[in-house]
Amino acid sequence: MSDLAAGLVRGDDGLTRCAWGGSTPDYIPYHDKEWGRPMADDHRLFEKICLEGFQSGLSWLTILRKRENFRAAFAGFDFALVAGFGEADVERLVADAGIIRHRGKITSTINNAKRAVEMKAEFGSLAAYFWGFEPPADERPQVVDWETIRANPTTPASTRLSKDLKKRGWTFVGPTTVYAFMQAMGLVNDHIEGCTCREDIEKQRGGFKRPVA
């Protein structure tokens, strides 16, 4: 019988991880080195929120395996460039077998790039805007476990951010999609108790300088 709490696995390297992060070799470096670490780079923030939109209805593993193709297709997620994409680019992307060829999600990414340009002009950076929605301490669970996360695919903070993005004209940004974005970009630390990454990320978050408008 395993001595690990539900939602944890121990890898061949002896490290204990969130179960999803140890479920396939493709996930291990993403879980260990990226997911949950605080991010202030505008291009990576834009990339992630767009890819979460593409992920809707699919597994994140599918998107992760195609991420480099997405980066090539969408100009490295430089939103200033993507905002200039036209109908010829839409047709190019719909025909690109290396990405998810969903016309609605493709046009959404172009739309969101235009909204991102507006956001940067207003707030100075996307990072300053998004980090303004970091949940306050009294909204963060004291103990993070698998059942808590599974039972709460949205939070008050993700609902607030989703509503504000939609008001600004963003699309494919429902509260569940936005919460996954917040988890991945470190606005919350949802590595569960017992995961080898959790304490390190708490320290990283503690020393992270929050961007401001």
Automatic annotation (TrEMBL):
Which of UniProt's keywords are assigned here? Answer: Metal-binding, Zinc
GO MF annotation terms:
DNA-3-methyladenine glycosylase activity; metal ion binding
InterPro entries listed in its UniProt record: Adenine_glyco, DNA-3mA_glycosylase, DNA_glycosylase
A Pfam family hit:
Adenine_glyco
Q: What Gene3D superfamilies does the entry give?
A: Hypothetical protein, domain 2
Which superkingdom does the taxonomy of this entry point to? Bacteria
Keyword Acetylation on entry: no
Q: Which residues bind Zn(2+)?
A: C18, H31, H191, C195
Q: What is this protein called?
A: DNA-3-methyladenine glycosylase I
Q: Which organism is it from?
A: Tianweitania populi
